[in-house]
Design brief:
It is an enzyme of class 4 (lyase). Its cofactor is Zn(2+). Keywords: Lyase, Metal-binding, Tetrahydrobiopterin biosynthesis, Zinc. By secondary structure, the chain is an alpha+beta fold. It has one domain: 2-Layer Sandwich (Tetrahydropterin Synthase, Chain A). The protein has three helices and five strands; from the N terminus they run E-H-E-E-H-H-E-E. A five-stranded mixed β-sheet has the order 3-1-2-4-5.
Length: 124
């Protein structure tokens, strides 16, 4: 009988606090307000994010986000709207560089108790 090794996934939960503003540089002020509503506040708004990273190995990245203004302190978001979906992609890209190929499985971010984003590195 061949040796069978189970595949295990380890999830690490971390948190960070940051503010952001949903605003696209490709849209005018009215379009941004119509699309993003109160989330387009010029002063931004804050969240206490909870991030779940599931891997077959290690993890890192929180220092670039924790207690930062995502729009102003994280160069990646200079021309990318800082939606939680895009934050998940940013975390994925950062971790993917540090881990062996094909070990990162899923990024899950809890923006609020009711809003959760999962990203598995897939593109359509």
């Amino acid at each position: 009988m061949a040796d069978i090794t189970p595949v295990l996934y380890v999830t690490r939960i971390e948190s960070f606090s940051a503010c952001h503003r949903l605003n696209s540089s490709q849209l005018g002020e009215k379009d941004n307000q119509d699309i993003f509503g109160k989330c387009n506040n010029p002063n931004g708004h804050g969240h206490n994010y909870k991030v779940e990273v599931t891997v077959k190995g290690k993890e890192a990245v929180m220092a670039t986000l924790d207690h930062k203004n995502i729009d102003k302190d994280v160069p990646y978001f200079k021309d990318i709207v800082s939606t939680t979906e895009n934050v998940a992609v940013y975390i994925w890209k950062g971790l993917e560089k540090l881990l062996p190929p094909n070990t990162l499985y899923k990024i899950k971010i809890h923006e609020t108790d009711k809003n959760v984003v999962c990203y598995k590195g897939e593109w359509m």
